UniProtKB/TrEMBL annotation:
<dbReference type="Pfam" id="PF13407">
    <property type="entry name" value="Peripla_BP_4"/>
</dbReference>
<comment type="similarity">
    <text>Belongs to the bacterial solute-binding protein 2 family.</text>
</comment>
<feature type="domain" description="Periplasmic binding protein">
    <location>
        <begin position="61"/>
        <end position="318"/>
    </location>
</feature>
<feature type="region of interest" description="Disordered">
    <location>
        <begin position="34"/>
        <end position="53"/>
    </location>
</feature>
<protein>
    <submittedName>
        <fullName>Substrate-binding domain-containing protein</fullName>
    </submittedName>
</protein>
<feature type="compositionally biased region" description="Basic and acidic residues">
    <location>
        <begin position="42"/>
        <end position="53"/>
    </location>
</feature>
<dbReference type="InterPro" id="IPR028082">
    <property type="entry name" value="Peripla_BP_I"/>
</dbReference>
<dbReference type="InterPro" id="IPR006311">
    <property type="entry name" value="TAT_signal"/>
</dbReference>
<keyword id="KW-0732">Signal</keyword>
<dbReference type="InterPro" id="IPR025997">
    <property type="entry name" value="SBP_2_dom"/>
</dbReference>
Length: 353
């Protein structure tokens, strides 16, 4: 059971530090769209509904995003910018984006000094940037913490992000159902960077799902680095070590490009591949149906568009349409949908390059 905040007149700083935590697992469309058909779309592809999009008090949102050195990270920046353009009452102050913690801290402190109304931050390192999140909150600037979480909840007003455990869980269930009629099946895993908590969560979810399918055995695992080159070299190693297997779970569609190259070079088929994140290339390949890649599990970069919605709502004192509470939730975990040939057309607009 979650505790809900009482709506009482208070200071801005009191709202930031006194709001009770409300956890909410939600589809992205639940907080950003009035559409009832469940179709996923980018921020430019659908009306900016769900949250009240009638023009209100002008809001300046500071956005401290990542360095766009990966397809998913670039999509984070693109979705935030395009969403902000939908609102006539929003000005977006954007930093250059950095994976260097000291540089990003300096950029965020500049936004604090500019007295922006609200901050949206995807930290290069959540723990390392906790103090600057706390600094903003103490200055009365609400923080929407995007994906990589700050250490204590006091450093942000609202967290929104993906479900790494759910990615692995849903990948495992999909593979399990595809192989349920095989008496003894084997799978291999091409993970991401092993010292990241997100990688460990994706593996744990996958392993937990496979417990429901005792006839399936995971026989191999290699950790890559979320790059095309590492995906190709590590997949080549898996293929060499395992002359046959029935399924492959690959954590990331960018490194999956390299994995597919290794598979083609080895002339291998006879197994199914499930990717992760939801790139446009992966979705196009799934739709074409001429590859071992049969599905990808989403980690939606459109979360940054929703973060802009939430930041605007915080600054204007609004809640989320379709929810009874007067305040926005303290936490929103996005669902990791499995995209297959059957539903790929619904998700194509969200695919990132």
């Amino acid at each position: 059971m979650t505790e809900q905040a009482h709506h009482t007149p208070t200071t801005r700083r009191g709202i930031l530090f006194g709001a009770a935590a409300v956890s909410a697992g939600a589809l992205l469309t639940a907080c950003t769209s009035n559409e009832s058909n469940g179709r996923a779309a980018t921020s430019d592809d659908r009306q900016a509904g769900g949250l009240d999009d009638k023009p209100g008090k002008h809001v300046t949102i500071g956005f401290a995003g990542p360095q766009a050195d990966h397809g998913w990270l670039n999509a984070i920046n693109v979705n935030a910018k395009s969403r902000a353009r939908r609102y006539k009452d929003v000005t977006l102050e954007i930093t250059e984006g950095s994976n260097d913690t000291a540089q990003q801290i300096g950029q965020i402190e500049t936004l604090i000094n500019k007295k922006v109304d609200v901050l949206v931050i995807l930290p290069a390192d959540g723990k390392a940037l906790t103090q600057v999140g706390l600094k903003a909150m103490r200055a009365g600037i609400p923080v929407v913490n995007l994906d990589r979480v700050f250490a204590p909840p006091q450093a942000y007003r609202c967290w929104i992000g993906g479900d790494n455990y759910g990615m692995g869980l849903n990948a495992g269930h999909y593979i399990g159902e595809q192989l349920k009629d095989k008496k003894h099946a084997t799978v291999v895993e091409l993970a991401g960077i092993d010292n990241l908590e997100l990688t460990r969560q994706r593996t744990k979810g996958f392993d937990d799902a496979l417990k429901n399918y005792p006839h399936i055995e995971k026989v191999g695992r290699q950790a890559a680095e979320f790059t095309v080159e590492s995906g190709q070299s590590k997949m080549a190693g898996l293929l060499q070590a395992h002359p046959s297997f029935d399924a492959l779970w690959n954590h990331d569609d960018d490194q999956g490009v390299g994995a597919e190259r290794a598979i083609e070079q080895a002339g291998r088929d006879g197994f199914l591949m499930v990717g992760g994140a939801g790139s446009r290339k992966a979705m196009d390949t799934i739709k074409a149906g001429d590859s071992v890649l049969k599905a990808t599990v989403l980690y939606p970069p459109t979360m940054s568009a929703s973060a802009i919605d939430l930041a605007r709502a915080l600054a204007q004192g609004k809640g989320i349409g379709g929810m009874a509470e007067l305040e926005i939730p303290a936490s929103l975990t996005l669902y990791s949908a499995v995209v297959t040939k059957d539903n790929v057309d619904d998700y194509l607009p969200t695919g990132f390059h």
